[in-house]
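Subject: complex prediction, re-run

Hi both,

The earlier run crashed halfway through, so I resubmitted it with identical inputs.
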Amino acid sequence: MLSADRLRLGYGNHVVVKDISVSIEYGTMNCIIGPNGCGKSTLLRGLSGLLAPLQGAITLDDKPLNAWPARQRAQRLAVLLQNPIAPDGISVEQLVQHGRYPHQGIFQRPRAEDHEAVEWALAITGMHRYRRRPFHALSGGERQRGWIALALAQQADVLLVDEPTTFLDIGRQLEIMDLLRQLNRDHGTTVVMVLHDINQASRYADRLLAMQSGALIADGAPVEVIHPELLMQLFDLETERVMRDEDGRAYPYCMPVRAQRTPHHHASTPRPVAPG
Amino acid sequence: MQLTHHDDTIELRSVTVLVTVCVVAMAISLIMSLRVGDFSLSLDQILQALKTPNDDTPSFVVWQLRLPRAVLGLMVGAVLGMAGAIVQSITRNPLGSPSLMGVTSGAAFAIVIGLVVFDISYGQRLSVGTVGGLSAAALTFGIAWQTRLNPVYLTLAGMSVALFFAAGISVLLIASDGEAMGLYVWLTGSLGDRTWQHVGQLAPFALLGLVMGVSFARALDLLMLDDDTATSLGVSIHRWRLLLGMTAVILTAATVSVAGPISFIGLIAPHIVRLGLRGDGLRGLGGQLPHRWLLPLSALVGASLIGIADLIAKVQDVPVGIFCVLLGGPLFVYLIGKQPC
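This time it finished cleanly. Structure:
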């Protein structure tokens, strides 16, 4: 279990995430939602161990995250943030092979299990066709699948992903979301993702964590969390909610009607601008 | 075309071409440097002297005057090529090299202070140079830190630091009232009048550098990723950067202490390797050139470059460092033109 206990995160004196406590159960699909600058990406950075807490603690299996040796932690947690940079000229396969570092270290040569893990990651993401291609020559959707393949080669139990569908066309967005769901259902991967699209979050997640101004304001199944009142509070957006059904699972779907700009409201709740 | 089978074999053609060119260049420079000089020797005389050393003049010239210089030159080139490749990778900066980070001048400045003010012994040059090189590196990185080590700013900071230390050296030379003028030739980077003692002094560092560079090649490959991705994979990026950076500084200081500051070899050698392997070579290696190839090949190219440069330097009777600047300057201008600001 990945847990945050009264977690406070920020940069210097600037507090972005204010005393959030949350526990992520293994095998679940979790989605953090909220307006721009609410601290959702910062929370994900904290949960991935890339940003040290200002206060509070993050634990993985009851052991503080910063007490885990770096490579052992990377065997359990795989992270994909926004806009990662691939080295010049690197091929898809070379990039995905880096995912084996947590299991190999600097001196170990690749073993059979490393080759198998790389092949599995390439196959499940459909990237085996492009293995020899230079990474920079790929399209946006292919690159994102390449990065996911790198994370999968780590064979971690928990996958933390920040806005995996941003900048992708709608078809490629669903491709990525279906891939994440497939990993969760078929391989038991725990997924924690930040999403901008409320309806995708509602459709794909078991549990939604809604954030505003650095605090957690709603936490539960999509059917409990997604309501026009909440969306008005989060996004100043008037919506109409309908229920949709997919394979026997009902989830709320919200159609945007109009944005309500109330300057007064903004002045009363100043929003921190989180870097990144 | 669909490649479904993982193929680990390497397309060796361009690697073979590059290695062959380097070996031929080194062989030619070695033979020529044994032949030419104040006392011209024929090939027969050289072979005779190499096979059966005795007390005659050709033996003395080959074994005591020319061979140590040639061997030292190759070692200096190899060490600088390797140090340059390491610096370029840990800073992810194609303009990186020990001399452009100020390390070479910093080491030289410290050694000149040591010689002029504290009268240090020859053996102490290396440790004093290392301290100077590390201080210069710290200064450069301190200045460029706020731009998050943007390559162009890092290079500008490094060049400023290098100029600062070069000015410091000039001040010391003038203030020492002509006494230290004997250092002038050393300060331009020279391989003249070197003995086996110099070779023995550099050899452990050359060996250590090669072993470390090749064994830590995987870490360098991972450091080419962005910091967040590398950290999330469990790479201790700061520890590796520091360890590899110190290695590069010590390697550089070692060359400065035996041959004076020689610029541009560290900058050029890795680029020649990459240019030489572009095309089917890199594709065969699977895209990015892994550091387990880049480092030894940079060492090989660095050695060949110094071999050729010192041969010309010897014929023209000027210090080799000046030739390296003449060769490297234009290439540097070309590389800086390709950088985004």
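The mean pLDDT of chain A is 90.

- K.
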